[in-house]
Each structure stands twice: as structure tokens, then as C-alpha cells.
Amino acid sequence: MTDHTRIDALNPGTFSLDGDEVEFGPGESILQAATRAGYYIPHLCWHPDFGTKGSCRVCTVRINGRIGAACTVQAASGQEVESDTEDLNAQRKILLQMMFIEGNHFCPSCEKSGNCRLQATAYDIGMEGPHFEEFYPDRRVDASHPELLLDLNRCILCSLCVRASQDVDHKDVFAIGGHGINTRLLINSPSGQMGDSALMASDRAANICPVGAILHKRQGFVIPIGQRRFDNKPVSAQPEESKP
Amino acid sequence: MNPSGLSIEQLLERHQSAPNRLVQLLREIQSELGWLSRGTLEMVAKGLHLSLAHVEGVAGFYRFFHQQPVGQYRILFSDNITDRMLGSEEMQRHLRHLLQVAPNTMRPDGRVSVSSTSCTGLCDQGPAALINHQRVITRLTRGRIEHMAALIEGQIPLEQWPAEWSRVEDQVRLANVQLGTQPAPGQCIAAAVARGAQGMLDDLKRSKLRGRGGAGYATGTKWQLCRNAHGDAHYVVCNADEGEPGTFKDRVLLTSYADTIFEGMTIAAFVIGARKGMVYLRGEYHYLLEALEATLQRRREQGLLGNSIQSVAGFDFDIEIHVGAGAYVCGEESALIESLEGKRGTPRIRPPFPVESGYRGRPTIVNNVETFCAAAHVGVHGGSWWASIGTSHSTGTKIHCVSGDCERPGLYEYPFGTRIGRILEDCGAHNVQAVQVGGPSGVCLCASEFNRRIGFEDVHTAGAFMVFNSSRDMFEVALNFAQFFAHESCGFCTPCRVGTELVVRRMNKLKQGYGSSEDVQILYELDKLMHGSTHCGLGATACNSLRDTIAKFRPSFEQHMKSLHFAPGFDMDAELSQARLATGRDDSGAHLETLA
């Protein structure tokens, strides 16, 4: 994996990721640099186009023996980063299981199946079951928008829609509310319904959800299950791409 | 908060419609209106030019903000294990029974609601309750509960409730340098000014003082980093969000030693070049606000705050008090800063650390109340003097908040290096089974460890010292702490948000008798996960006491299991009750145990 874009020649530096040398640019996080260099570190709340959140913790790695989230730790010369290890992957599996059981995720009936990052990451890590008892929370489905559907049962609180709406669309349609296990996504509109909000189907925020929480209406199963993004290749073989 | 009779518009004006005043505004508005309706939040959002969802998100973060009516009287029972040991659960049930009100719901006539809240810092004089977020009641008894019910039914205003009920005592049982004779107002500032900023800083470094909030970071280094950091403003923040259950030293320091705290903050300002200081006072201590404001005002009049302090040109510094709204996580310094800025109190990604980029992105020091007091004493007596007390790595004294099973609960101040057993002897504790040092996120020590010593080299502590005698079920202690963390998790990161909830569910399952060794194994697994993956230190330590309790008091867990090897996750016979109902049968053949 050497055919990555050259980084700032004035500020060269490399760290090792599971034994491979990875170049990084000024101010880059370990996850940013690794992704740009074509490496895969499992992650859900991070996306190359948006600021770092650090909430899902799936990208947790060991840096010179210390634990840290790859998306929040700045890359530095000489770091020895371990990511693809048995114990870290075991930990990631538990974090993914936690995300499954705290919501209501029924993959076989979900329109996002095959395009879902949560599902794909769980498959890739070898998650075979929930391990913990499901919480089966009572969460809201909001079909008030003419073109979009919000199903909070599947929301993993990655806040990508919050950031996209704020930073790209400049609309602030979403926010995070509540606390603890009752933390939830809020819609900015007089009624709290998505239909009354400024969200449009073409907004970046309406097209960033890594799971099936924000879906486009009347597009169900246009691509058959089995032929979708992560059906073709596992998530680990498809590093995240920036939008031009 | 006492209603001021101001309208939302007037309150907005008072805070100059500044978005960073959001939390303060919501508090004040709620004290006028009782709760925060969607319409109210909409007005606030408009006034501050924030989105409604943002304002709703902030309101929903803090436990003391209500988006549903909670009644004319909002009764919150402090739910620390020490309150429970003094019978608070039974008293809460009794009050609900007398008032005919269901848990966590407002009585239909809008009169009252009764619920629980995390430790209110009155463990040495509990059981305690908080009424309408403005009045505390200590030493609850069945008699007081019955009288309280009558006052509520009679709609007697809080001001007319017996004053004796709200008496809060300092209970300083053993004073050393910090709880002893205090410097005269201005004495410490004068000493610092005489030495100069660099001289004062050098002395502080010489003292080897470490932060009293738990983490133990070198105070001199923190001040130095902040002093060296570039910014158009520097800030001094006093962390008075004393939320760790079992801790109440800051309450006493704020009550009777406020001058020393402010003195410490002022020399910090002198060292780092700050013009503004803030005290983040936990919402539970709102009743101290008036006296603290009066002390600040007196200090302004004495020339100890304001412009040209002690006539030193350019030494301008003033202090303002922010009141929290019920969120343990705000004790974490970066979450505290978020809250000061009027946002949800979720911890920031670090680095950058507050000393470089803190309040409004400017260099900021955040120190614990006790740390500022200690710094003030260093200011007066010098760093070498302080370093001569305690041990080489833990200098000076530490204040311990003793509660639980002992004859003389209250504050005890010892030099670092003091034996746990010595503290137990002094407070009159007998048949001690365990001591929880440093609160739920600290360490649980059993009898064989009572020779260990307080200090950063051995037993760290932020101050809590809860004693459990041999009659206590340590499982109940662990359950209380698990409930605390689930209640206080900010919800930001997956491992803490889901992990704390999973722990509580496992513990409840064990309590109900459906648990097995497998559940204990899962608790270990969750502890390991949270230690290695949470966003902040609070999540990382959320299972500390659980891990200790399982390791040291495993029989208390095992007594809650029907079988050590296997137990079903549910009661199979109970599951058949619907079938029995449907078939109208209740004979021996319809029960599993008696099935032939």
C-alpha cells in the first residue's frame, strides 16, 4: 500500500501501524493519516469530511502501549500504533454489540442492509450475535418529511448528520439531546418533526447516515440485497472516501 | 433559586443575550416558572440566536432541568449509599405513601413530585433531601417526613418550613493546617505580590502541591503552563462541582473558608495574568450562593477584588459564580468548561488541555476548591513549609469526608501518609468491613488493607471516606454505585453510555436472584472494556468499586445467586402464570416444581 497521495513535504513524518510505516501530514490524526494511506481502522462516527467527534470508540488503538481513539490522537513521528490485534478487535466487537443492543436493529428487514456501516463493521469483526440482552427501547419513527424517513431505532448517535448539517448545509437541523442511555437525536423544528425542518433530500446531512436512521423514501430496495456496497467487498477493503 | 419575578425577556437582557449564559438563564427561568416548556425554550433560543434543538439539547442534558411540570414542591432524596444506610429509601416510600404520589411522576393536582438525586454532599448529616433545587433538609426522620407531608398538603411556602430542618453543620472533627487558623483576608495576596508572580510560582512548585480533585496533577506545573500559554485572556476556574458521592469537604470550605478559596484564586490570577475568575458551584449547593456573593462583594469593598488589587497597578481580577444544574460529569475539567460556556457538559477531546485552550478557547486553569485553599496557605507560609508536611510525593495535608458507620462523621484533616486505620480509630468506627476511599470511582479497601496509607504513592483520594461495618451487604454498596454511574453517564461515548446501563441490569438481575457466575464474569468484562475505551476518566473509573467489591467481597455477590453454576435468566414458573390464567388451572400439575 504505497500509492497514496504525497503529504506535505515540509512536514514529513511516519508512524508505524501494525508494523507498516504510514506517512502523515501536519495536524493529522492517526485515523486520518491511515485512511488516506489506504489502511483500514474500524470506525463509525468518523468521516474524512467532518471534524472529529470521538464518541463511538470503535477506532480505539494502542499507541506506544497507551490506549486512545485513533480519530482523536494526533499522529506523531515514531509512534507505534497497534490496531489489528486480537484484544482490540475483541473490544471492538463488544462496542459493536453494545450499539446493536441499545437500539433496535433488525438487519433482515432494514433497507440499509448491505450499505450499512454498522452491519458491515460487525460482519468484518466477526460478530455473530448480540452477546448481551437487547434493551428494545421505545424509539420514535418520524415519517413527516415528504422525501425522507427518520427511524431513531437505528440511530447510533454518531452525530455525522449533526456535523454535516452544521458545517456543510449551514442549517443546524440536528442536535444531540438527553443524557446517559436516553441520549437521542433531536430535530430542529417548531414541532420537533423532520417534516417541519429545513432539511432537504439533497442536503449532505440527509446523505451521510452510516446506518438506516435517515433514509430516502420511495427508493426501497432499488439495488437488491446481495449486490450492495458491502455485499461486494467487506468494509475493511473499502477505505472511506472524501467527497470532492 | 428564589424567584425574582423577572420575565424571560428581562432575564435575557440581564444576561445580555449571550449564548454562553444559556445554562444560567435556564436555571433562572426555571426558578420563575417551575419547568421549561417547549414554548419557553423557543423564546430562549430566539433571544440567544441559537437553534431550538440546541437549547433543547442543553436543557435535556442537566438532571435539574425539567421539560415536564414537576409540581409546586419538587422533593429530591439524596440517594447516596450513606443516605440509604440511614433509611432514606423507606422515608421516601413513606412520604410517597402519605402524599399518594407515584415514583417519578407529578401528583395529578400539580402539587408535588418525589424522586431521587445523586449524593447532595450531606452524607455526615443525612438522610438528606433537596426541595425545589433551593433548600436542603438534613437529618430526615420519620417525624420530619410526616410533618413535611402536612406542610405540602397545607401549601405552606418553603420559607415558613422549620429553619432547624435546613441547618447544615460543618462538623470539622480534626483540623490541621487547612481547617485550622485561616490567613486574614488579603494576607496571602500581599505575600504573593511581595514575591512577584514568578516568585510565587516558584514557591508553589517548591511546595510540590498536587491537585486535590483526584487526578493529582502538579499545581505549579499547571499554573506555569497556563502562564506561558498565549492568549488574549487567561482564566481562573474553581471547580466547586463536588459530585463524587461521599465528598462534602468543598461544601464546608465554601461555607466557612470562602475567603481562603478566593484568596487562592486571586494569587492564581496574579501568577497567570488572569482578569476573570469563575467558581462553578454545583447546583446542589445553590443554597450557599447568597453568602458567597456577599463575601465576594465584601472583598471588592476591601480592595481584594476588582481593579488595582491592593493598589498594584494592572492587578485587576474579579470572580463570578456559575451555578450548575445537576451533572456529575461536569466535575471533569473540560466538561465543566463546556458547561460554563452554556453547552452540554460533555468532556472535550484532549489535547489541547485547558491550560492552552480552555474557557472560550483561552488558556485556563481549573483547580479544585481544596487546591486553591492549599495554594493560599502556600502563599502565606511558603513552599518549603508545605513540602515539609506529608510525604515526599504527597505533600501537605488532605481533608477527608468521613461518613457511614462511625460515631463521629465529618471532616478530618491529616498530613498525607496517614494510615487508613488511624482515621477509622479517630472517627469511632467499629467492626469495619470495608472503606470506600475516594468515592465510587475510588478504591474499596477491606480490613486487611487498613494499614495502607493515604497518598499518591498508595491510596489516592479526592476526599470521600465511607465506612461500612460488618452488618452491611457490600453487594448493595456496589449496586448503589452502579446506579449512580448509569444515572450520571453523559451518554457521549458508547462504552460508558451502554456499559453503565448493562452493569445496572446485571446487578438488578443478581439482586432478583436470577444471576449466575456468568453475570459476574460479564461484569468483569464490562469493567475491562470501560477501563480501556471510554472518552473520559469518569467512564474509565465507573466500575472501579464494582471490581474491588467482587474481588474482595465475592460472597456478598454469591449470596444473591440461587446456584453458583447456573441460574435461568428468568423465573420459569412465573412465566407460566399467563397459561394458568388462560386455562383456569392452579393445581400442582400446573406448576413446574410440583409437576409429577
Give me a quick take on this structure.
The complex is a heterodimer of chains A (244) and B (596). Chain A is α+β, with helices and mostly antiparallel strands and 244 residues long.
Can you characterise this structure?
The complex is a heterodimer of chains A (244) and B (596). Chain A has 244 residues and is an alpha+beta fold. Chain A folds into 2 domains: 14-84, Ubiquitin-like (UB roll); 91-219, 2-Layer Sandwich (Alpha-Beta Plaits), CATH 3.30.70.20. Chain A is built from 5 helices and 10 strands. Chain A has helices at residues 30-36, 86-102, 117-125, 160-167, 229-232; strands at residues 14-17, 20-23, 60-63, 66-69, 80-82, 141-142, 148-151, 174-177, 184-187, 214-216. A 5-stranded mixed β-sheet of chain A has the order 2-1-5-3-4, with no helix packed on it. Residues 1-9 of chain A have low confidence and may be disordered. By secondary structure, chain B is an alpha/beta fold. Chain B folds into 5 domains: 8-59; 73-169, Glutaredoxin (3-Layer(aba) Sandwich); 173-387, NADH-ubiquinone oxidoreductase 51kDa subunit (Rossmann fold); 397-471, Ubiquitin-like (UB roll) (Roll); 475-558, NADH-ubiquinone oxidoreductase 51kDa subunit, iron-sulphur binding domain (de novo design (two linked rop proteins), Up-down Bundle). In chain B, 41% of the residues lie in helices and 12% in strands. Chain B is built from 25 helices and 14 strands. Chain B starts with 7 loop residues before the first helix and ends in a 13-residue tail after the last helix.
